[in-house]
């Protein structure tokens, strides 16, 4: 299947630690068109909290942090907001995630930060002896593109935030909207970017 480079994936995880081998509570992702901002698919895959994830870490400080979050956020990861919500083993969730990426031919993955979501899910693919469905050179960081766009006048707050904070699906969708908005802002202000570069001391 031919790759459409406009179709990219925003990833957000909810975890029980902040290290690369963190125990994963949910995998959220939004497949989107970078150039138009269209959201093609958003999913939140809840991981069975009663199933062990051998070799993956749980920290007391992260559990304590979760206890301080909103009822909605805590209910999401414990699934008490919807008792009929489907739950997956870690390997099952990774397989669904991988198949969705493949079905949309999305070869680029974005995380909110360069060393958290993508690094953790790559570690999970490895620990489950599964193929990582993107190349290392197609990993992107939302914070970088936002920082560059903001230097040129982009306002991240102009992107409306909907849903539950720390719900991986809602967060992934918002990230996709921010990434596309920042990209389109820079594309539409290319002349201004060139002017700023010409007037810089670099």
Task: Give an account of the 3D structure.
This protein has a single domain (7-196), classed as 2-Layer Sandwich (Nucleotidyltransferase, domain 5), CATH 3.30.420. It has 7 helices and 6 strands. The protein has helices at 60-67, 71-78, 90-103, 117-127, 142-151, 168-188, 190-198, and strands at 7-15, 24-33, 39-47, 87-88, 108-111, 139-141. A hairpin with a 5-residue loop joins strand 2 (24-33) and strand 3 (39-47). It is globular, with a radius of gyration of 18 Å.
Distance between the termini: 43 Å
Strand content: 15-25%
Backbone shape: globular
Pick out the low-confidence regions: none
Helices and strands, in order, run as EEEHHEHEHEHHH
What's the domain count? 1
Task: Give me the CATH architecture, please.
Answer: 2-Layer Sandwich
| Main sheet: strands, sense, barrel | 6 strands, mixed
What's the CATH C level? Answer: Alpha Beta
In what order do the strands lie side by side in the largest sheet?
Answer: 4-3-2-1-5-6
CATH topology: Nucleotidyltransferase, domain 5
Structural class: alpha/beta
Q: Determine Rg (CA atoms, Å).
A: 18 Å
Question: How confident overall, as mean pLDDT?
Answer: 91
